[in-house]
Amino acid sequence: MSGKRGGRSVRVALGICLLLTSVITGLTAAGERDQEIQHIRDLIETDRFAEADSLGRVLLAEIDAADSSESLEAAAVLDLIWRGALESGTESIRLAERAVEIRKNIQGPEHGDVAMSMYHLAATMSFAGDYESVVETVDGAVEIAERALGPEHPNLAKILIWKGRFLASGGNTDEARPYYERALAIQEKVLGPEHKDTIKTLRWFAYFHYNTAEYDTAREMSERAVTLHKKVFPPNSLDLAHTLSSGVPSSLPVIGDKSSDATGSARPFLCHYQAGLSSSGSRPLMPHRGLNHLSHSTPYRGSPHQVLRL
Fold first, then answer.
1. What is the Cβ-side half-sphere exposure of residue 49, based on CA atoms within 13 angstroms?
2. What 8-state DSSP symbol labels residue 305?
3. At what angle do helices 112-128 and 154-169 cross, to 10 degrees?
4. Which of 15, 97, 204, 263 is buried deepest, with most CB atoms within 10 A?
């Protein structure tokens, strides 16, 4: 009898060991995937979309192969890799829609993460030129974020600034302005003026003022963004290059200066911009055609850079 009990004890112990090994292996794999997802986010933050897309697709294939295709891990990757498929239109929308559906099924339709995935979906739809679907989707994202996250959440601010940029790109500058103002107010209060997202919104708002011929305000905001960014990032960083290039275009007049020497005043900013691109090894920031073709009224000049850089 004692031998049988001993045998059972050994089998139970072995079973527990195998279970623990399986759990530890799963946790290790999940931790590694979290690190890979963060790496992809970092690549996107520096506009390395092709590299991010390539890594994201490999990771998504691994997740799908592990029978986790309807998991939040899959949704997290889908929220990232649609950017690399933007030129294909239909595929990017399919990827973004899949993320929204996964989150709705697992987290519920009123979850804040659903709002963020819908915001990504709206961005992909803008490339297809479906104006009504974009507006409906981004408005739904704003409503869900308001209810789920509250009126002063940083993720709500991200959606608001994107909607402001979308409206402005269609020439609806009067409608767009409150979205810029509210997003910036939320970020300055919650994140602080030196946070990268606050500075990013500040530079977009500067360009908004430039395109509405509010040159003094545009230059004041641009210079404030540059000053703040220089405190946060190295002198030749690509992030600083983004701020300098999108906030202070070469044709922006000097505050109070009615002379024709506006370009010269911007030259130091553009030199920093070129240095940032050169040292970063990144591709140049190119004009992009994602939103401007949706114009329904007076054309808006928009930013010379990636409107959908989220």
1. 17
2. S
3. 20
4. 204
C-alpha closest to that of 240 among 284, 277, 268: 277
Nearest to 99 by CA among 123, 83, 76: 76
pTM: 0.70
3-class state of residue 206 by DSSP: helix
Angle between helices 154-169 and 131-149 (to 10 degrees): 160
Domain extents for the chain? 151-310
Read off the tokens for 262: 């506006």
CA–CA distance, 83 with 124 (Å, rounded to integer): 8
Type of residue at 287: P
Domain 151-310 has CATH 3.40.50.2300: no
Q: Where is 21: in which H helix or E strand?
A: helix 2-45
Q: What are the pLDDT tens digits along the chain (310 aa)?
A: 555 555 566 566 565 655 555 444 444 455 788 899 899 888 877 778 788 888 888 998 999 888 788 999 999 999 888 665 555 567 788 889 999 999 999 999 999 999 999 999 998 888 777 788 899 999 999 999 999 999 999 999 999 999 999 999 888 999 999 999 999 999 999 999 999 899 989 989 999 999 999 999 999 998 898 888 888 876 666 555 555 554 444 444 433 343 334 333 333 333 333 333 333 333 333 223 333 333 333 333 333 333 344 4
Q: Which helix (H) or strand (E) holds 250?
A: none
> Is residue 147 within 8 Å of residue 115, measured between CB atoms?
no
- The CA distance from 307 to 310, in Å, is 8
β strands within 109-264, DSSP E: none
